[in-house]
Amino acid sequence: MTSPQGFLGFWETTGSAKTFTHPLDPELLDAYVPRGARVLDYGCGYGRLTAELAGLGREVRGVDVSAALIARGRREHPGLDLMRWTGFPLPFGAGSFDAALLFAVLTCVPGDAEQTAITGELGRLVRPGGVLYLSDVPLQGDALNQERYARFAERYGTYGVFETPDGGVFRHHAPERLRGLVRAAGFSVVAERTGRVGTLDGRTAERLQLIARREGPAVPDAGEAAAPASG
Predict the structure, then answer these.
(1) Using H for helix, E for strand and C for coil, what is the string for 199-223?
(2) CB 48, CB 96: distance < 8 Å
(3) pLDDT exceeds cutoff 90 at 164
(4) 3-state secondary structure of 178
(5) I want to staple 97 with a disulfide (CB 3.0 to 4.6 A). Which of 17, 40, 105, 208 is the partner?
(6) What is the mean pLDDT of the chain?
(7) Are strands 126-136 and 204-214 parallel, antiparallel or unpaired?
């Protein structure tokens, strides 16, 4: 649920006690992530959805950059496969997973470069034909959000980035931004769904879910890419 670079302090303190609220959509999950699939839950936080996926018959690993959130997850879900890892690449080979989950992660990652790094790494790790299941928060039209987008735009240089009173920094996105990120990582969007979900501050917000299929050959690991051609 957190960024691999920057803004981590919030998630090691105040943010680590939050109750996360983005739910899985059972219909989308069953249609695109079959039972037995190897799933990476990136930005897993305290393993809320990791545990749900495991209970639904998926072979799932959860990864987050926050030590506090992973420690909480291990307390609340003993035996769940949760790992703290900061930065990229993650310690898995190219094409290791049938699917990746990216739920309310990009909203916690304000920077363009960091977002691109996340989706690019998932493009490496999901096998061709596998899927990225993304759920995140698009730009909202209500007065509260419109005011804070405008108020913080100059400070952060991006419309949609804002601070919360408890010290968090979040980002809401133009839907095309989210689609563009997954396309640039080698995925093709095959399904979309909108709806309302709870937020960390007890309100509700519109969400956008994307199912995107990985195209083309697997992205080679760094060592493989550097190897000389044989013959």
Answers:
(1) CCCCCEEEEEEEEEEECCCCCCCHH
(2) no
(3) yes
(4) helix
(5) 40
(6) 92
(7) antiparallel
**Residues 181/182/187/193 CA torsion (nearest 10 deg):** -140
CB 181 within 8 A of CB 119: yes
Q: What is the pTM of this model?
A: 0.91
Is the CB of residue 100 less than 8 Å from the CB of residue 39?
yes
Helix (H) or strand (E) holding 59: strand 59-64
Say how many residues make up the chain: 231
Residue showing tokens 């108020």: 151
Range from 141-155, 200-214, 215-229 carrying the lowest mean pLDDT: 215-229
pLDDT of 228 above 80: no
The per-residue DSSP string of the chain comes to ---SSS-HHHHHTGGGGPPP-----HHHHHHHS-TT-EEEEET-TTTHHHHHHHHTT-EEEEEES-HHHHHHHHHHSTT--EEE--SSS-SS-TT-EEEEEEES-GGG---HHHHHHHHHHHHHHEEEEEEEEEEE-BPP-SHHHHHHHHHHHHHHSSTTEEE-TTS-EEE-B-HHHHHHHHHHTTEEEEEEEEEEEE-TTS-EEEEEEEEEEEPSSPPPPHHHHHSPPP-
Q: What are phi and psi of 213, to 5 degrees?
A: -95, 135
What average pLDDT score do residues 131-141 get?
A: 98
Tokens read off for 86: 């900061």
Q: 97 has which bridge partners?
A: 126
Cβ proximity of 64 and 2 under 8 Å: yes
